Amino acid sequence: MTADLTASLSVLLVVVALSEAIRRFLTRALARTGLSVYAVELVSTFQLCCCTHELKLLSDVGGIEPRLALTLTYLASVVHGLTFRGAIGNPTSALEHAYHERISRWCALRRIACQFAAAAAARAAVPVIWSFGLSGLHVRHKLFGYQCISSIHAPLPKAAAVELACAFAVQTVVTHTRSVEEKYRVHAVAAAIATSAYAGGSLTGAVFNPALAFSTQFPCSGNSFLEYCLVYGLAPLLAYPDPAHAQ
Q1: Closest C-alpha among 182, 175, 186 to residue 239
Q2: Can you list the pairs that 36-41 forms with residues at least 24 positions away whose Cβ atoms lie under 8 Å?
Q3: Which of 151, 156, 126, 155 is nearest to 206 (CA)?
Q4: Angle at 92 between CA 109 and CA 158, to 5 degrees
Q5: Angle formed at CA 229 by CA 227 and CA 230, multiple of 5 degrees
Q6: At what angle do helices 105-130 and 91-99 cross, to 10 degrees?
């Protein structure tokens, strides 16, 4: 288990380091084109999805202790928050930004396209990483054809309600900490994400992000595409606070 954990942590560090290097390069290279924001969105969402794939593997197949899984979720959320450089990484959040005119509608749509493209890229990339057999966990997962089982362990209405509640809780923290200095704010948001994962993880995986779910949950057997869309797509979209109270 220690060797598997070490290998997975190494994968996470490499993914974050490479993503950060690419973000810095593209931000400079595309500074005068207006495309840097979309490049950052693409790379950051790819980072989010790859890291979540590895953490999901550790939890679902590696069987790490729940407390350790929550700690890693918290730490990963902090790292994402500190490195995203303005990327949103969540289609429902992008729509919320457009609704409140923080970004234009076309900008939101282009960001969402980048998010789903990155999610698809991560879904294709992680089996390649696992195929190197960096740990016994990766080797075992490869032997079973990288199969995964649906994280929905509740009736669909209840599962949708869980994703809605988790999304609402996290977005409420995000909304009410906008004025907080970023180095402190990321910890508040990460704590909300970890708490939501603790509360809803056993029922749905507590994803509350359609692009992330498209990468990590949709390929899994056990539910249909439409059922995944209901739980991981529609439910989080309905979770956002009333516009009159979200400014």
Answers
A1: 175
A2: 37/86, 37/107, 37/111, 38/110, 38/111, 38/114, 40/84, 40/85, 40/86, 40/87, 41/87, 41/88, 41/89, 41/111, 41/114, 41/115, 41/118
A3: 151
A4: 145
A5: 65
A6: 170
Separation between Cα atoms, residue 32 and residue 10, nearest integer Å: 35
Tokens found for residue 204: 């749905």
Instruction: Answer yes or no: are the C-beta atoms of 126 and 135 closer than 8 Å.
Output: no
Give phi and psi for 149, each to the nearest 5. -110, 145
pLDDT class of 245 with cuts at 50, 70, 90: very low
Residue 74: pLDDT above 80? yes
Contact between 36 and 30 under an 8 Å Cβ cutoff? The reply is yes
d(CA 206, CA 62): 18
pLDDT, tens digit (0-9, with 9 covering 90-100), for 146-158: 999 999 999 999 9
Can you read off the two tokens belonging to residue 133? 């057999």
State both tokens at 109: 């749509």
What b/e string do you get for 157-175 counting C-beta neighbours within 10 Å, with b at 16 or more?
eebbbbbbbbbbbbbbbbe
pLDDT tens sequence across 191-219: 999 999 999 999 999 999 999 999 999 99
Q: At what angle do helices 66-83 and 2-29 cross, to 10 degrees?
A: 10
Please report where in the chains the tokens 């990155």 appear, as a residue.
118
Q: How far is it, in rounded angstroms, from Cα 115 to Cα 44? A: 9
